Amino acid sequence: MNVHHKASSVSSTTTVTLIMALGLVGLICVTMMPISANAAPCFDSPQRAYDYLLAKEASAIQAREQKIININRASEGELVSLNGIGSSKAQAIVLYREMFGDFKTVDELTKVKGIGTKTVEKNRERLSVQD
């Protein structure tokens, strides 16, 4: 069965990770792109394919870690990407914001229980109070 035909039933915005080993040729092709993409990189060994996937993951993590977070609009999921902010502190930020309104400055984040000056300083470059 044609792999591309089968995959076309998936939404074009869906990212598909597909590793297809071509035993006769000895190549490994990896696709981490929307279905509408035309070409997939091919590798001559499983180790190179694995290294490629690790590099792609590291790149995605780095991009996420460099994203500016508007603390007045961020969801709990976005807030937990900050250094020193886990789920409970992220929930506390959202709750504080709902109770007292938007933060006027980044430093007001220290008014949230469990968040101190050190946490704000570690994240200052990534924090914003406006869009």
UniProtKB/TrEMBL annotation:
Out of the domains of life, which is the source? Bacteria
State if DNA-binding is listed as a keyword: yes
**Is Kinase set as a keyword in this record?**
no
GO MF terms listed in the record are: DNA binding
Q: Where is the Helix-hairpin-helix DNA-binding motif class domain?
A: 77-96, 107-126
Keywords recorded for this protein, A-Z: DNA-binding
Q: What is this protein called?
A: ComEA family DNA-binding protein
Among SUPFAM superfamilies, the record links this protein to:
RuvA domain 2-like
